[in-house]
Amino acid sequence: MADVAIAPRTGSPKPQIREATSWEQIKHNRNWLGFWFMLPAMAFLILFLAYPLGLGIWLSFTDAKIGRVGQFVGTENYEWLWDDAVFWLSIFNTVFYTLIASAFKFAIGLYLALLLNENLPFKAMLRAMVLIPFIVPTVLSALAFWWIFDSQFSIISWSLKHLGLITQNINFLGDTTWARICVIFANIWRGVPFVAITLLAGLQTVQPSLYEAATLDGASRWQMFRYITYPLLTPIIAVVMTFSVLFTFTDFQLIWAMTRGGPVNATHLMATLSYQRAIIAGQLGEGAAISSAMIPFLLAAIMVSWFGLQKRKWQQGENND
Amino acid sequence: MNGLTRRTLLQGGTALAAAGALTGPALFDFAKAWADTAPWKAESGAKLTVMRWKRFVPSEDDAFNAIVAAFSKATGTEMNVFSESFEDVQPKASVAANTGSGLDLAWGLHTLPQLFPTKVLKMNDVADYLGKKYGGWTDAAAKTCKLGDDWLGIPVANNGGYMTYRKSATDKAGFKEFPKDFPSFLEMCKALKANNTPAGFALGHATGDANGWLHWILWGHGAYTVDQNDRVVINSPETMKALEYCKALSETFIPGVASWNDSSNNKAYLAGELYCTLNGISIYVAAKTDPTKKELAEDTFHALHPIGPVGKPSELQLALPILAFNFTKYPNAAKAFIAFMLEKEQFEGWLQGAQGYLTQTLNAYENAPVWTEDPKNTVFSQAAKRTLPASGIGTVGEKAAQAIADFIVVDMFANYCTGTKDAKGSIAEAERQLKRIYR
Q1: CATH number for the domain including B201?
Q2: Do B359 and B271 lie in a common domain?
């Protein structure tokens, strides 16, 4: 068998050293290797995030309808919306809804987090209970609120009537002011646990030694919160509030299940208006324009988060940038 | 998708037995005989996929399934029926029309066949056959489905909504007979409110109820969204009068109507808090079948809409047309199925199963047993005759359907009645939206 093994050596010309083809380079280069590993994630993001977003923006420049390809119409949809009172009302509603609900969620969430960070009896159980509103599917809680605020069967009106405090049902979802209060209340109820639990997690990372040192220096409770807890919590506040604002701004289910944007569009958010125009009335292009108009607002919220995260380096004692 | 199983067949059979129509073997025998003589012979090995709106009355669905099963057995056609909620029927049919696949038949709402006139199978022969045999089609039904001389679909039925009221309350308010014109209707609502037995009509985004009664008020005053040539004419003195009338009326309503959806008035009426509203027969059916609501059912009566200053009926009743796509491989089976559905032997039992929820569009069925066995049902037999097409006096089609889907008329009235906008502002907003749709 020996000659067989030797045969190729003697029978064929010496292997030549040649330049690696660019394909081989790409195949073996370490930097490219990183690219290959990123490829599935990238494909996923492009397919499910970038493509739909791009398609949405493209649709907003067409007169597409459901089941029909549209023609490019330039900024016609946006021009129309610019003079549309309902569209501006929905922007006002969305901003109003987001600001009020987020402020309350932050205040109540922080308060709850501080409370739960103390040594309370049944601490574990209480912490778990706070999460309940977050666990219930949004649509179910929205339906429950719909009944609670029903114009004829509201448990609140019923109770107050039986207590003799009012003589007529409160027109919760039929009065524009009341309807706004009700949907904001429901949103706060649902959003508080997320803020509270995340801030609680942040609180737990604060080293107890800092508080001990402050106590020795004679700091008051308020000073301890103001100069230790709050600064160390800032990065997490930035992140949690960004998420909270994003979720609130794009809220759909709660509104759709409770009011469908009514009464007289007083609770129409941009998301619900977009759905009504695009899916219910079939005007895909116009609906896409409404949802594309949300992008600047959402970008602004993300910028806040970006700068919030930047601050973190400085807080950990690294270079001030 | 739920294909037909033996179980659904059995259920269908029992429902029909209860309704006293052709059942079991008799229905199959008829189907067989019909298939042998019908003008349309189903292709051998035919398969039909049918989409319909999701039923509200279970026995209606049972009756429908029994018809499907009998047809399937008699002609050897494989039937695949599935249902979609009201909101989803049109988008899905549009996608099927656009892609040229997925569905053979679609049973939908309003003027569905007008949305894609080039994609549907012409039904002229079916319409002729049925029209001749059963006393002709009602005007609105024909308008809903016809483009020029062509039938784009077949108007299977209407879903009627009528005045539903508590006789004890209207009697006490001094109206032994339900008002027949707008001024006395307003007087009655005022009296009902004074007696603390209020009326209530939805001013929220209630697809069926709010659109139904507000178009009646609008049209009743001789005001329309567009004229015969589809020019937007909402900005008119008649609309102004309609707004004023509606505002006066809404001041007599039970609180909360601005938040109402399609189920709100049903709930409030059945709870005994609401004494007059506009609704399908479902309130009465629910009361009748609930032993604890016996008194309420006995006290409940139905009446036609009062006639407005325009001097003729101005109702908007939901049309339910069926269409077959022209890309179906089995056009004869599709036509045969539609014709078969509307034959007396099936259709009367089906109307029976629907308990008044469906109203015929073929005149001969006006004396069907469902309308005569309970006098309180009779009013609903008029729905297809007294309605205008969803477009009012304008052209039927997509634009009219879109104006309704976007609640343009509803929001106009709601804006004014709730005091959100003045009359001019409400009309201007509606006019602007209509002009975009009818550009």
Answers
A1: 3.40.190.10
A2: no
Mean pLDDT of successive 10-residue segments in chain A (321 residues)? 49 67 79 86 93 93 81 90 92 95 95 89 86 88 91 89 87 90 95 93 90 91 90 86 91 90 90 89 89 93 74 53 44
Do B92 and B66 share a domain, yes or no?
Answer: yes
Q: Is B83 helix (H, G, I), strand (E, B) or coil?
A: strand
Partner-chain contact B264 A152, CB within 8 Å: yes
Compute the nearest-CA separation of A321 from chain B (Å). Answer: 51
What are the angstrom distances between the C-alpha of B11 and each of A216, B28, B290, B296, B353? 81, 15, 21, 30, 12
Would you call A260 an interface residue with chain B, using a CB distance cutoff of 8 Å?
yes
Token representation of residue B174: 């001094």
Domain of B321, in residue numbers: 6-160+317-380
**How far does B369 lie from chain A, in Å, by closest CA?**
37
Q: Look at residue B80 and tell me if it is in a domain.
A: yes
Count how many domains chain B has.
2
Q: How far apart are CA A118 and CA A130, in angstroms?
A: 15
In a domain, residue B341? The reply is yes
Closest CA to B11 of B56, B66, B80: B66
Residues B106 and B140 both lie in one domain = yes
Q: Is A23 exposed, middle or buried (0-12, 13-18, 19+ CB in 10 A)?
A: exposed
What interface predicted TM-score (ipTM) does this complex get? Answer: 0.75
φ and ψ of B137, to 5 deg = -95, 155
What's the predicted TM-score (pTM) here? 0.82
How many CB pairs below 8 A link A and B? 106
B357 shares a domain with B229: no
How many secondary structure helices (H) and strands (E) does chain A include? 18, 0
Contact across the interface for A169 and B436, Cβ inside 8 Å: no
- Same domain, residue pair B167 and B302: yes
Q: Å from B289 to nearest chain A CA?
A: 22
Cis peptide before B91 (omega within 30 of 0): no
Residue pLDDT, tens place only, B365-402: 998 999 998 999 999 999 999 999 988 999 888 788 88
Tell me, yes or no, whether B77 and B190 share the same domain.
no
Dihedral angle, C-alpha A282, B321, B97, A69, nearest 10 °: -20
Q: Which residues contact B406 (CB under 8 A, 6 or more apart)?
A: A276, A277, A280, A281, A283, B433, B437
Closest-CA residue of B relative to A69 is B98
User: How many contiguous H segments (helices) and E segments (strands) does chain B have?
Assistant: 20, 11
Structure-block tokens of residue A59: 């649709």
Considering only CB atoms, which chain A residues are within 8 Å of B94? 65-68, 282
Please indicate, yes or no, if residue B394 is contained in any of the structural domains: no
Which residue in this structure is represented by tokens 């199959």? B28
Question: Which fold, A85-315?
Answer: MetI-like fold (1.10.3720)
Taking the Cβ of residue B271 and every Cβ of chain A, the question of whether any pair is shorter than 8 Å is answered with: yes
